[in-house]
Design goal:
2 helices; mainly alpha; 95 residues
Length: 95
């Protein structure tokens, strides 16, 4: 039997996220899906490299995401969350 410790707590504020071509009425569903997706990925894969240190990250650049405007906001949000995590887990962010 093994004991799982309490996961570290982080605060991640996304000041601006631009997704062109999607209705503004979906913004809360997208936001919730991104938050849930990041939470799940961090629990599964661990804390991203850039968040292991207590520092501010000024900007991250995401890879392209193939999305269709007819996709559900939850699907898009999880794709965005994976891209955010991958960007945080590399040295491609800037202060």
């Amino acid at each position: 039997m093994f004991k799982i410790g309490k996961a570290p707590s982080i605060e991640l504020n996304i000041d601006q996220l631009v997704l062109e071509g999607f209705p503004s009425r979906d913004r809360y569903r997208l936001s919730n899906a991104i938050q849930q997706g990041l939470d799940r990925i961090i629990r599964e894969r661990g804390m991203p490299d850039s968040l292991r240190e207590n520092r501010r990250i000024g900007q991250i650049n995401l890879d392209s995401i193939n999305m269709q405007s007819h996709q559900r906001p939850e699907v898009i949000g999880h794709q965005v969350a994976r891209s955010i995590y991958d960007s945080l887990n590399t040295s491609r962010n800037t202060d």
